[in-house]
Amino acid sequence: MMSVLVKNKHGWFLDASSLVDQWYSRCVRFKDTQKSRVKCSFKRQCFQILKSHYSVKAEAAVDGGKSEVLEETDKTSKKRKRKHSELNHGEVDLQASHDKVRSVILEGTKSLVDSARSLEHLNRATGLVKEPLPSHECRLVALCEMAKELPLVDEDEQEECVQSLVAEDGRSSHVDLFSRVTENRDDSASVVTLLGEEYVIPSHTAFLLSDFTRIQPLVHYGSRFDLIVIDPPWENKSVKRSRRYSSLPCTQLKRLPIPLLASPNCLVVTWVTNRPSHLRFVRDELYPHWGVEVVAEWFWVKVTTSGQFVFPLDSHHKKPYEVLVLGRYSSSADNSASPSETSVVPVEDQRLIVSVPSALHSQKPSLSEVLKPYIGSEAKRLELFARNLQPGWTSWGNEVLKFQHTSYFTLSPTDEPAGFHQDETPDNFTTSSCH
User: Fold this and answer.
1) Where is the stretch described as Disordered (predicted)?
2) CA-CA distance, 400 to 264, in Å (whole number)?
3) What is the pLDDT of residue 239?
4) Cα 360 from Cα 138, distance rounded (Å)
């Protein structure tokens, strides 16, 4: 896959934008019962992180390893560096956690960035798009709140828990997104009108737009998943100040019905902020509550288009990496049906995923390619608290269509007829029936 540019003993260097474009290489637009072929790509400026948050005189930590001389330039940084004794309790806790992995982050990132540079991936100064980032007011959370007034689908009405995105007559405006799982069963991506606005839906994908109070249709969907990726809306001060999205108390995460969604030996992956208390909660409370055993911790390292850390590695305020906690689900009730231990591929610890991040808040890179060796190509995959869709995945959240809005894409007509078929389709997506 083009998305994995480099793979070595430290981990992977990803080209996230190329992978997204692969998902929409063929796309059909449904409008007024008419179908037309369109060319669709995610807007390039979203992945143009040209400058790190360093002072002008600072050196790049990835190149020289001298991150101790770097200073932050964001609004919350201090004009002078504080001494260790002046750090608050949370910062001291963060520093202790960081010290344990600093060398892993530095050495692995340098290796992967150097390899990416040798492929001239980080040396390109051409093709820059000088346009502002797309700005779209997402109303999905508010719509989910309003949808709570609607009656839930009766569990006895099994045929009603799933629906096709596009009906036989080509219409898509009357699908119930809030209480039924919606599937795009087509071999192509589809541009459709939902809730009065246009969205781009990948091929062979399923999604449910709801919050905790209406997650039941996902449970009754009929699938047990081999991979579950969770991106919780963690509570923190910056989120409260910005009000970019509603956060969730840690204890509420225990309500996620993981035992009802996970297959035996399901790989569970949770995105965690750099707050040590969140990491301890996942390892010591959340995973044990679900019957998930921690098997590894990985790190997503964010770099600029020139290969610098996006934040100073040794910053007391923000780090240029996020943690992923990986675990395997097991249940005494599933032991008889579980495959032998030899069939479970061991997950290596302290691997890095290095990429240029999206400039859009909370848009994470796809883990499809890097996790495939540990789950197999036939695995059924689920993302919880998703803000975008992926081919071959089922996704749930109250902003599940956020980054599928056409404002984030460049769409242009093409002369290719609309009735085409893709050469390749995801081999891990099957439609489900409720039980």
Assistant:
1) 414-435
2) 26
3) 47
4) 13
Percent of the chain with pLDDT over 70: 77
154-161 long-range Cβ contacts below 8 angstroms, 24+ apart:
155/216, 155/220, 158/220, 158/433, 158/434, 158/435, 159/434, 160/434, 161/217, 161/220, 161/221, 161/434
Helix and strand element counts for the chain (H, E): 10, 17
CB-side exposure of 23: number of CA atoms within 13 Å?
Answer: 27
Kindly report the number of other CB atoms within 10 A of residue 20's CB atom.
24
Distance CA 138, CA 150 (A): 21
Q: Is 170 left (phi over 0), alpha (psi -120 to 50) or beta?
A: left
Tell how strand 205-209 and strand 181-184 pair up: antiparallel
pLDDT band at 430 (very low <50, low <70, confident <90, very high): low
Per-residue model confidence as pLDDT tens digits over 272-328:
988 899 999 999 999 999 999 999 999 999 999 989 999 999 988 789 999 999 999
DSSP E strands, 258-320: 262-272, 292-302
| Residue 309 contacts residue 301 (beta carbons within 8 Å) | yes
Residue 146, phi then psi, degrees to nearest 5? -65, -35
In the numeric block, which tokens belong to residue 62? 């990835």
Tokens matching residue 37: 């072929």
The answer to whether 172 touches 374, Cβ cutoff 8 Å, is no
The predicted structure's pLDDT at residue 240: 47
Do the Cβ atoms of 159 and 217 come closer than 8 Å?
A: no
Give the pLDDT score at 69: 30
CA 235 to chain centre: 18
Question: What pTM did the predictor assign?
Answer: 0.87
Nearest to 312 by CA among 112, 52, 136, 18: 52
E-assigned strand segments in 15-143: 27-31, 34-42
* pLDDT tens profile 262-277: 999 999 999 998 889 9
Beta strands in 120-180 (DSSP E): 162-164
From the list 221, 224, 278, 225, the residue with the least C-alpha distance to 253 is 278
Q: Which tokens is 202 given?
A: 């990948």
Domain boundaries along the sequence of the chain:
138-299+320-353+360-408
Determine whether domain 138-299+320-353+360-408 maps to CATH 3.20.20.30: no
Q: What is the mean pLDDT of residues 86-105?
A: 87
Phi (first) and psi of residue 183, to 5 degrees: -115, 135
Structure tokens at 396: 């749930």
